Amino acid sequence: MIRSPARRAHSLVELMIVLSVLSSLITVSIGWIHQSMKLSKQMHSRQAHQTNLTRLTRMIRDDARTADKASVDGQTLTLPSLDVVYQIDGSVIQRTEEIDASTTRTDVFELQPGSRVHWIETELPTAITLQVKRSSGTPIPSRLPPSDDPNAANSDTTDRNDLHLRMELNRYARFGVKP
């Protein structure tokens, strides 16, 4: 009986199959990596947005509770007794405080693009309200099931309230609390 020589190499067809399988796996894994990096960037942006909203909430509440009066002129809130001005410019809120004649302190709160910010002054002189909404052009994943109805609320057509903050003016003085 004749023995065939021992096979020491792989055929060209076997190598081509292995290479095609590996290239398919690499293509799929690159897509997953890209998607996870994109989601990570979105989450970082949302976290920065929430952090700025938290900082803004804390500062403006303390200012309003200490101030005895406020005035709103368009996109500007002025607290004259504290020498503090809040200015809205698009999705950026800037707080300027005059500490003394030569020193001012400025805090900037950058919100997500597409955020709409405005003052609601209907309760002046006793209270002021700040409202931050994310406009309909800023996509937010919806928790609602998808709907074919064009009038149904979904992530692309519904404004979302990010912040609705009502502050009573001069609250610290009325309750005898020193800030």
Task: Please characterize this protein's 3D structure.
A hairpin with a 2-residue loop joins β3 (84-89) and β4 (92-100). The chain contains two helices and eight strands; from the N terminus they run αββββββββα. The mean pLDDT is 85. With 179 residues, it is an alpha+beta fold. The strands form two sheets. A five-stranded antiparallel β-sheet has the order 1-2-3-4-5, with helices on one face. Strands 6-7-8 form a three-stranded antiparallel β-sheet, with helices on one face. It is rod-shaped, with a radius of gyration of 29 Å. It is 33% helix and 30% strand.
Short description:
The chain is of the alpha+beta class and 179 residues long.
Quick tags:
alpha+beta, 179 residues, 5-stranded antiparallel sheet, 3-stranded antiparallel sheet
Structural topology:
Layout: H1 12-66, E1 71-73, E2 76-79, E3 84-89, E4 92-100, E5 103-110, E6 115-120, E7 127-134, E8 160-168, H2 171-174
Antiparallel strand pairs: 1-2, 2-3, 3-4, 4-5, 6-7, 7-8
Number of E-type strands = 8
Strand content: 25-35%
Strand order of the largest sheet: 1-2-3-4-5
The chain-level mean pLDDT equals 85
Cα end-to-end separation: 103 Å
Shape annotation: rod-shaped
The largest sheet is: 5 strands, antiparallel
**Could you name the ranges where pLDDT drops below 50 across 5 or more consecutive residues?**
none
Q: What assembly state would you assign to the polypeptide chains in this entry?
A: single chain
